[in-house]
Fold this sequence. Notes:
By secondary structure, this protein is an alpha+beta fold. It is 26% helix and 20% strand.
Amino acid sequence: MVVKTLTAVLHREVDLYVAECPEVGTVSQGETIEEAIANLKEATELYLEEFPVKDFPKPLMTTFEAAVNA
Length: 70
């Protein structure tokens, strides 16, 4: 068994945190950040059991500005 470090991108919805792993495409949620990440880890491990991936390219992440009507 090999342990890989993957990325978790989180955002808050009304009453939940949503966590996504961009390297694999898995998504999960939880009432707390910790629960969302734990659920994402479980979902990702289950996914990778069924669909093994050899290479985990790191996502390219950046920021940008957008005009918003307030």
